[in-house]
Write a structure and sequence with these properties.
Layout lengths: L4 E2 L6 H11 L5 H10 L3 E2 L2 E3 L7 E4 L2 H7 L10 E7 L3 E6 L5 E5 L8 E4 L2 H7 E3 L19 H8 L1
Antiparallel strand pairs: 1-2, 3-9, 4-5, 5-6, 6-7, 7-8
Helix pairs in contact: 1-3
Amino acid sequence: MKIRLSNGSAASEVAIAALEAAVGCRLSESFRSFLNAYDGAEPETNVVSGNFDCGVNRFIPAAQIASERKYLENLPRLGYPVAWAEGGNYVFIDEGANGSVFFWDHERPEDIVRLASDFAGLLDLMEPFDPNSIELKSGQVKRVWIDPEFLKTLKK
């Protein structure tokens, strides 16, 4: 694992058993191992590298995963969210796809993107990211929109 995690702890066996009952199958071993040490952990600012870049904000505690499922449209029957991602999106595992990990975009819930073959693979793809390392070139940003109500709060 290339990233630092904070504020995580071991999930209880009761929480893991309840999650397995809600999903309807045993959790993949790589995710179970993670829950036994880092349940609910917050990663440092990161990017999941590969063909599709996204960032993970926080891993969902095992006790909250079952209730969080209702927010994901088109979630596979054996799928369950494991992390909150940038921009109101999710990362989820589909046990029906051998524990593969996917990105779920709230604006395009029908277009899920496979990130890794298992949870350990996801952790391997996560790299530290410094937003200040991004330098925009002159003319690179063509246009922006700011909510007028939000803009009023900035002008106060």
